[in-house]
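Input/output pair, single chain:
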Amino acid sequence: MNSPRDGAVSVPRLSRRAESLGTENAFVVLAEVNALVRAGRDIVSFCIGQPDFPTPEHVQEAAIAAIRAGKHGYTPSAGIDELRAAAAHDLATRRGLPITPDDVVVGAGAKPFIAYTIASVTDYGAGDEVIYPVPGFPIYESQIAANGAVPVPIFLRESRGFAFDPAELEAKITAKTRLLILNAPQNPTGGVLDRENLDAIAAILARHPQVWVFADEIYSRLVYDGRFESLATRPGMLERTIISDGASKTWAMTGWRIGYVASRALAPVFTRWITNTESCASQISQWAAVAAITGPQDAADRMRERFRERRDLIVRLLNDIPGITCASPGGAFYAWPNVTEACRLTSCADSEAFRKRLLHEAGIAVLADIHFGRRVPGDGQHIRFSYAASNEAIEQGVGRLAEFVRKGGRP
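Output:
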């Protein structure tokens, strides 16, 4: 019999849930990038989706004040009253909805609420279906599978401005459908659902009252063309929509881990989930988020304007490259260029081969479309740029891409 020192001892099997759990490839690629940088490689990275600005000064000061005031302990699982009230007022004011502090639950980032929602409205192994966007945030599909529900992709098409065809939604809803996940502005395309699309979605859902909606609106303050609109404002939709937002993207607070949702029906359930998992979000971060929401918005407004300038720059530069076309994203900080012809020009089999060669041969880190789900049939090959990077980095990185394509991928 082998002893533990032999290194060959078997371990008990994992659950199907653990084995089905996916990952977020942005962090996988980032680890690869960091390894190359440590080895001395010069890499211009566009792979991680977080603002490259510091958290606003007054938000930092609020956290320091909380520490010095001894606010170090647990809070109620749903969050401190001050943050729930601030978030409710902000969510209600910007969307024109009657949201109250009791409707709001605060978590350690917005991401955990994806899992909490799926676990709350589907039963493991019962065949319950969740419709989710593709391309889309990879954690959607991962958590659907891990929670024992059935993933049902709905395709965001370039020809529709990265919206899905409402007729396709109607066709995919069955008696087993329990949840529709919407994300606008979108990761990875930067697409925004306009009034016409939202009206059509609401009209379809009115015929299917068994379907909840998880509205991932974490980029709601980063809309560049027109104004942000939420599905929850449509008649009958507020009661069945979980509105998800947070501090990460708007105030450059990704590492502070503060997100929140609004749902009158599910707030008590989400509170119990948090009690069972994280207990509560960091009290220090919660006080910082109060300052972010209620304090001066100058820094957030400046960040948004910088992102708009960067969007215009990267779209213009990408469209100047032979074999690449890039629609102008309406929100978030992602560009989703079509590289089908560029793959052909550089003898790359697909976008993933293209991405790998860009990283190892041209020193540019991007993500491929397959990192965000299966490819959309008929839409070709795409890569994602996060333009949460300086103008200089954008010009340098896209310049390397242009040279790689113009040389046909040859050294």
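The chain is about 40% helix and 10% strand. The two ends are 55 Å apart (CA to CA).
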